[in-house]
Every structure is written in C-alpha cells, then in structure tokens.
C-alpha cells in the first residue's frame, strides 16, 4: 500500500548502489534539506567573494557548481573523477551582476 505524498518530505535518489544495504531512494525532511542548501550557499558565497573579476585577459562572469545530495541530506560538491552528467544532483550557476553602464 502506497503512502500519500507528504509536503514535509522529499525523495532523494542517492549515488549509493541499490545492492548495498539501505541503498536506493531516501526520504528526507524538506526542512533539513533546505537548511543544508542554505549552509552550502553561504559557503559558496565565502568562496565567490574572493574570486577576481578577471583572470588574465578574460572576464569571469559566471561560476557553475554541481553538487550531490547525500543519503543524510548533506550537500556535497562533485570533485575530480565524478561525471556530473552521470548523476542527478543540484546545479548552481552564480552570475555577476551586469556591469553595463557602470564605469568600473
């Protein structure tokens, strides 16, 4: 018998193989996931505030980050050796405000 949808929880399919005990879809509290996304964004803000406007002759206008939700609801950046296209997860694109018309 299926349970009725609950607006306070969300299903997350983790990268853990289903063959592992406890693998497969996980039900997470929306409040917990929301808090973890907020913490992740605050951490990214700390990093981006230190990012230069230009790199050599190139202007840095956009910063794209891919992250995955763990079975515990933690937000983790995808590191070396992980193919973002092979997983779901969350994508964040941070764009600098348009400076058109501003003489910087």
Quick recap:
The protein is α+β, with helices and mostly antiparallel strands and 104 residues long.
Description of the molecule:
A three-stranded antiparallel β-sheet has the order 6-5-7. A two-stranded antiparallel ribbon has the order 1-2. It has one helix and seven strands. The radius of gyration is 18 Å and the shape is elongated. A hairpin with a 2-residue loop joins strand 3 and strand 4. 3% of the residues are buried. It has one domain (9-95). The chain has 104 residues and is α+β, with helices and mostly antiparallel strands.
What is the strand and helix layout of this fold?
Elements: E1 9-13, E2 25-29, H1 30-48, E3 54-55, E4 58-59, E5 62-69, E6 75-77, E7 90-95
Antiparallel strand pairs: 1-2, 3-4, 5-6, 5-7
Q: Please report the total strand number as a whole number.
A: 7
The biggest sheet amounts to: 3 strands, antiparallel
| Tally of separate helices | 1
The 3D shape can be described as: elongated
Radius of gyration from CA coordinates: 18 Å
* Oligomeric form: single chain
Ranges with pLDDT <50 over ≥5 residues?
A: none
- The chain-level structural class is alpha+beta
Q: What is the number of independent domains?
A: 1
